[in-house]
Amino acid sequence: MRPAILITAGDPFGIGPEVTVKALKAPAVRRACLPAVTGDAAALRRAGWTPGLCPLLPSGAAVPAPRRPGPTEAGGRASLEAVLTAAGLVKDGLFAALVTAPVSKEAWAMAGAPAPAHTDLFRLLEKREPLMLFSRGRINAALVTEHVPVKDLGRRVTKSLVLEKARLFDSALRALGIAGPRLCLCALNPHAGDGGVIGREEIEVLRPALKELAGSGVRAEGPLPSDAAWAAHLAGKSDGILCLYHDQALVPLKTAPVKAPPVHWTWGLPFIRTSPAHGTAFDIAGRGKADASGMEAAILFAARLAAGGRS
User: Which of 72, 77, 130, 184 could connect to 238 by a Cys-Cys bridge, CB 3.0–4.6 Å?
Assistant: First the structure.
């Protein structure tokens, strides 16, 4: 039986409504799941939604269009309300998974959101530490820290956090059907610290974490310099690469010679959640130019997880 999946349309003035509607029309999506969508109804209608496409659960009052492209308080409030509504419905068991179209962090800040973005909001609501992952073909990359300034990384990368994220990563890969997954942990410093000459995080934090992981049955090697870790992962020598900060994962992931679009997903929540790995693209919104392949991939990935009965 096809799983029921709820999709939030994202910021009403970004490309979210457009890529949502385009993805919903894809034959592969129609075969894989029973979709429904929530968000600003007017924006979805402008993007081509019709009652025959899927159920629409309107979220809040209609939002007036801005004079020029960009983040707005109204758009932030509308997209935030849709996410809060959708998360409640998925947690109540009415849907098997949640797929979120892009929102604007600036717009959420304007609207007084309690958290800057989706993952942060779910962490706050569920009072648990989730794992941010990205999958693209055979690539599986996860983050120890997310949207953290580079200057704060030495303080934020702790042994306990590395352990928690690695264990979540291990379980996430098992949910994809990978038995006994092999992880590779990236180093924080150039040349993995060069024996402490360029930093001691590898000696004092990362290696002790790896030793403890080995004792608990999680297979992980490293810490390797990020170029070596990525080269090994792309060569198939690991099933997942655990990166310590945002760009350590996202730059190689998005520039890798892989045709499949990347999918962003969150693991460790009481529900399945995926999204496309791109932003609101206010500059092309409403022009019919947006590429919906990332949104389609996110929906299919959610359907795959839901069909496996794992969250």
Answer: 184
- What global pTM score does this model have? 0.92
From the list 61, 16, 8, the residue with the least C-alpha distance to 35 is 8
Task: Tell me how crowded residue 2 is: count the other CB atoms within 10 A of its CB.
Answer: 14
Domains parsed from the chain with CATH numbers? 1-133+259-311 (3.40.718.10), 138-257 (3.40.718.10)
The order of strands in the sheet holding 131-136 is: 56-58, 34-39, 4-8, 97-100, 272-276, 263-267, 131-136, 139-143, 240-243, 182-186, 219-224
Using CA atoms in the order 155, 160, 133, 86, what is the torsion angle rounded to 10 degrees?
Answer: -100
Give, in degrees to the nearest 5, the angle at Cα 32 between 30 and 37. 60
Rg, the chain, Cα only: 20
**Cα 243 from Cα 187, distance rounded (Å):** 8
pLDDT digits (tens, 9 = 90+) for 143-189: 999 999 999 999 999 999 999 999 999 999 999 999 999 999 999 99
Give the span between the Cα atoms of 202 and 192, in whole angstroms. Answer: 6
